[in-house]
Input
Amino acid sequence: GAHLARGVVCMPPMYVNVGAYVGEGTMVDSHALVGSCAQIGARVHLSAAAQIGGVLEPVNASPVVVEDDAFVGGNCGVYEGTVVRAGAVLA
Output
């Protein structure tokens, strides 16, 4: 299963895949996708239609890590083992 920490806001329709971790106070906006085994830190904002890659697609990929207090803008895609450092803004 996936882990959603205390205070995570999920705006349907959104999707969190198997093995993903979503930290406390994070917002997963509408149509956002969190891939398998992705690691999302605390107080992160995943905007509408953002895509965070997983390890099941493509096979043998490394997990994506988004550290605390980051902002991933609408329609942004982060894939294949990328690490987004704390406080980063992707637009």
The longest strand covers residues 3-4.
